[in-house]
Each structure stands twice: as structure tokens, then as C-alpha cells.
Amino acid sequence: MKKGRGRTSRIRRRKLSKSFESRGVNESYKPEFIQLRKWLKDRKFEDTNLIPASFPGTGRGLMSKTSLREGQVIISLPESCLLTTDTVIRSYLGAYVAKWRPPLSPLLALCTFLVAEKHAGDRSPWKPYLEILPKAYTCPVCLEPEVVNLLPQPLKAKAREQRIRVQEFFTSSRDFFSSLQPLFSEAVEGIFSYSALLWAWCTVNTRAVYVKRGQRQCFSAEPDTCALAPYLDLLNHSPGVQVKAAFNEETRCYEIRTGSSCRRHEEVFICYGPHDNQRLLLEYGFVAARNPHACVYVSQDILVKYLPSTDKQMNKKISILKDHDFIENLTFGWDGPSWRLLTTLKLLCLEAEEFPQSWPHLPTEPRFPVGLRVQMGMTCMWKKTSL
């Protein structure tokens, strides 16, 4: 039979090609997933909707075994499968956490548990889960300095802040790690190294789900809301997907319910939140294609560069913006400049005679210099929006 050459045949071939491009390769036969499924079954979880698979573009994720309808619960993970601060308190680390002063943060407790269990290797009851976790992460905090230097200036600054924050987190935790020496035959300095803690920090930061817990005296006042959810955390992000995710107090399970239908053998996505690509890269180590929340961050240097150099009030204006936290997170998205960016520009563009009398009330119509208008038009994403 001759190959169809008509319009209908071409459309059919394109659809078939697109289907194969997005279809995942089943990975449920791999030893690490066989062990994980057995481990989950022992903890009263069995999934009939999803299987692990590898997808072009997103990598490892979960694929639908059957068609999923809107509003269906696609995964219901029992509390016994979740790794929380309760898990840490019930473990061999619990006594050390409880007596430490000042109290540990919930984040440090989870990170310490992850490092200790990974070090335990085959002796860890959490090994099946630890085996499928990434060995390394692509968040900017993990990148070499020469790679970070290639990032756009606003992202570069955030990446450096993130690295400093994690380094301080490690330095401030060393005394607690030293207190754990009786639990190990090796020196704790070799077990709880910076690289080990960085891996644990990224694991919690990129994979944790939100589960609110009550305040306990053995932990600091920071919110205790992070829980690691084995298997469920294989679900990848898509900005256009809507799901309902929460811990069900009646069933004592963390449940995800679809907001739309999904065909058989398609990748099942969840949405991590309405994040722009800078936030996604910083927090999760990836960017999303065709992200409706994508935006360009406008730095203070760009704003000031195209404003009149004769403005004697500029330093005072910048100071006011910094005092009110308005000098950062200035963005320009698909719908034009953000409210924060517009407000900042309104203040910066006030004439000398307007500034003393008008503050803190800003003019309703900003007057933008031509240079700034051109620069914004070149570097930012426009959608029929005019300055």
C-alpha cells in the first residue's frame, strides 16, 4: 500500500510523531524502582495510576497507566511514607535534637537525617528512597563560580546570596554535628561535610511538599512545613497544569487531585507554583519552556543609567526605595511592567519641584526618559504594552 500523501495523512503523521516525542519510556523494571515499590507497599502504599518513566525534555517523571479524568485522585501517599521532623525525632537522632540549645531549625533536622541515612548505606531503612534521589543538583548554589558569572546580573546576585546563605547554614551547624560523634565510628567532619549538607539542603529545597505541623519546643520558631514524599516527588513541573495537593487529615495521606484530564501513557505533571524562570532555576535547578510567568528582572543600574544625571535627589530616592524594599524584584513580563517596577519608576522620575511635596504620594502617570524607554524595549518582553 502506498504511503498516504494527502492532507489528512500528513496531519495524522504529525500527530503520531508528536505523540512519540512526548511519550515516555517505562522505567518500572529497573532495580531501584522495583525496590522502591516494594518499600512503599510495605508502608501501605500501592499505586494503580502511575509508573516511573523517562521523557524527552523533562527526564525522569511519572507516566499515566490509564486515562485520568478531571478531579481524580492520582496519588495518595500514606503518612508512614513521608519523611518529616517526626521521622527525625523518632530516630536515633531524636535525643540529640531534643537536648540541643538553641533549638535546631526543622530544615537542619531534616538535612542531618538525610546525610546520616545516606552515610548508613545498606543499613538505612530509607535506602530504597535514597537510591532514586539525584546524586547532584543543578541549582546555581551547586554551580562553579565561573558558570555563575555567566548568568544575568540579577540572577547572578541571587545565586551568590544563595551560596552565602548555605555556607552560613553549614558553618552554624558544625557544633551540632560534633555533638553527634558518639553515633559514628568515623569522624563526623568527614560525614557532615559541606558537600554532603549541600546535597541534603538541595534535596529538601527542591523536592519537599507542604505539610503543616504544630510548633514544638525542640525546634526553632521557623515554620515546620517541609516533608519529603517518596515516589510522589518524581512528578515534574508544568506551569500550565492545575492540581490540588494537600495532606488529608481524615485518610492521613498526602493526596494530589488532577485539575484536568490526562491520556494514557502521557507524562503526569503538577505545578510547583506560578514561578518565573529565575525562581525556578534558583529553587529547583531548571527553567520551563513556554512559561507564561516568564519575565525579565530590571536592575537598579539599568534604571539609574537612563535617568538624568543632574537629578540631585537621586540618592535620596534610591534610599527611600531600599527602605521600603522596592529596589529588588522589579520585573517586566508578558503583560508589561510589574506594579513594583512602575511604582519605582514613578518615584525615580519625579521632578525636583515635585519630590519634596509629593512624597509619599506618587504621580499617577510616570514620565519616562527616551533612553530608558529604548533600553526597556530592547531588554524586556513586550505584549502590545507601551510606556
Defining traits:
set domain protein methyltransferase, domain 1, three-stranded antiparallel β-sheet, SET_dom, alpha+beta, single chain, disordered C terminus, 387 residues, 13 strands, SETD3_SETD6_MTase, 41% helix
Task: Name the CATH superfamily assignment of the largest domain.
Answer: set domain protein methyltransferase, domain 1
Please report the first level of CATH classification, the CATH class of the largest domain. Answer: Alpha Beta
Domains (count): 2
Helix content: 40-55%
Number of strands: 13
**What portion of the residues fall into strands of 2 or more residues?**
5-15%
- Here the CATH topology of the largest domain equals set domain protein methyltransferase, domain 1
Order of helices and strands: HEHEEEHHHHHHHHEEEEEEHEHHEEHHH
* Largest beta-sheet characterization: 3 strands, antiparallel
Concise structural overview:
This protein has 387 residues and is α+β, with helices and mostly antiparallel strands. The protein has 16 helices and 13 strands. The strands form five sheets. A three-stranded antiparallel beta sheet has the order 1-2-3, with no helix packed on it. Strands 4-9-8 form a three-stranded antiparallel beta sheet, with no helix packed on it.
